[in-house]
Amino acid sequence: MNRYLVAITFLLFAQVTWAQKTPLNITHLTGDFYVYTTYNLYKGTPVPANGLYVVTNNGVILIDTPWDTTQFQPLLDSIRVKHNREVTVCIATHFHEDRTGGLAYYKQQGIRTYTTKQTDDLSKKRGMKRAEFLISSDTTFSVGQYSFQTYYPGQGHAPDNIVIWFGKERILYGGSLIKSTDDSTLGNLGDANTKTYAISVKNVIAKCINPIYVIPGHNSWKTIASLEHTLKMAEKAAQENH
User: Fold this and answer.
1) What is the pLDDT of residues 93-103, one digit of tens each?
2) DSSP assignments along 116-137, one per residue
3) Is 12 contained in some domain?
């Protein structure tokens, strides 16, 4: 009987803990830049997924979509209430669900959704959500007073992973290619290329000079050391691959 009660107590505690981690969290980064975080389960464990949004005088730029499908609309509502602005552009950085899950929903809301053609090909093949508009190469976007560039550094976490670089502000959104210093591994390698991962990270470092902020796809973004941290893990993975 005692074992039964312990099991029930543990189950209830796990459910409460998970429920506490499901809401949308929005954190001010700097100026008009905000990191939003939602949660989902990976191998039974709640994992945070980061996205970025930027408030401009011509609407809000949204980078990636919530991983938690219940947060698609709450994110839009929170942005509207907090900033009195609508999201006008959404760009997903690779085909996995924690990046593309909300594309179809946001398209229905009249938001212009974008991915690379490579991401769209993989999304179509894997049955993932797809964007309305495709970019075939590295592209510079201008929305309101802000400009940013999409950059494909090569295969790493996924065959199609891109990063987003706000050059003037020196803000790098690394997505799932870049790992937080909280991470002790490269994470999900199901679609990864460990042979080229380190090369791709080096390309990002060479392209995005002296970032002030680096936002990884998961966990903490409090230090730009995530770039070198990811590179070291990727170099180790390449050696082990030999």
Assistant:
1) 999 999 999 99
2) EHHHHHHHHHHT----SEEE-S
3) no
In the set 157, 183, 191, 229, the catalytic residue is 157
Structure token digits, residue 220: 């903490």
- Residue span of the structural domain in which 62 resides: 23-241
pLDDT in tens, 121-154: 999 999 999 999 999 999 999 999 999 999 999 9
Residue 18 lies in a domain: no
Q: How far apart are CA 82 and CA 157, in angstroms?
A: 33
- Establish whether 94 is a catalytic residue: yes
Total domains, the chain: 1
Annotated catalytic residue 157:
yes
Which residue among the candidates 40, 96, 191, 229 is catalytic per the annotation? 96
Confirm whether 96 is a catalytic residue.
Answer: yes
CATH number, position 110: 3.60.15.10
